[in-house]
What we know:
Elements: H1 56-95, E1 155-158, E2 167-169, H2 178-181, H3 191-195, H4 200-209, E3 214-221, E4 227-234, H5 238-248, E5 259-261, E6 275-280, E7 283-284, E8 287-288, E9 290-297, E10 300-307, H6 314-327
Antiparallel strand pairs: 1-2, 1-3, 3-4, 4-10, 5-6, 6-9, 7-8, 9-10
Helix pairs in contact: 4-5
Amino acid sequence: MTDTTGHVPAAASPAVPTAAPEALAAPPAAAVPPQPGPEQPGPPPAVAGDAWSLAPELLEAAASDRRRTRAALLRWGAVALVLLLSGTAAALAVTAPDRTDIPGLATPEDGRYAFPPLTLPRLPSGKPDPGQVDAGGRHYADLRGLLLPPPRGAVLEQPAAPGKAATSAAGSAAPSGASAAAAGVPWLACTDYAAGDGARARLDAAMAEYACRAATRRTWTAADGTRTDIWLFRFGSQTEARGMFGEIGWSEPKGVPALHSADVEVDPSLPAAALTAQAGDQKAKNGPTARAAYLQQGDVVAGIVMTNPDGVAVQAYRQVALLQSQMLR
């Protein structure tokens, strides 16, 4: 018998969920502020790394160095202040008294003289001084006023005018400057110079050849015993004066040791052709007993002779020759 009954498929069973259904989200709990409690030790907060930052121990070392530096600066500043105050006090102590009153600082006496202020005689109206180009080296001022005045404390031996005796006066009564001196100084004859010289014939001939126009003289004895004799001669031109300058160096003043050329710098501003320095052979504790200087500036020739039995100090000699040359500029 044929089975007509067919295979009947089983009915599909309902799907079973493989996961639990999603739970409903719970409502947010109310924010509760944290309650204070005991601090729990923990590591220090992390600091963001910086390639240029220094380690804490290096920063502390640098701060310590700065504190030490400030302390050292304060100490040295205090020392400098003490030294400054001490130096100021010492300077006041030194400058308050005269220098010569301080042991060890007194300036030794070197033989120089104390001259009054030098003044030149007044020029005639419209005439230039010898230093100007248009003057041609001619001195228009009174020749007597161009003589160097005596130093303080010197005894002035005023040369006499022809027919009168010479006189002497203390330095206090002597003129204080060249302009005041001219009034009391007499004019002399040019031949008067050679009258007291061993080379009289030669000097008289030279005075006539170069036509000496005028002469004057001043003589004094300083406090150190040095006698200074100064002559000035005026000529008609620089050329005539230069000719006489070449002859006057052969002078042989009577009573004066023989004079010879001396290597003494008197006035560096004068050329060698305008200045002759001489010294005697006899020596004393202060140097040669005689020194002489002959100089020519423009139309004027000067002769300076200084003598002293104890020796003529070179400082005084240079001073007199230099100042006389400056009076003629």
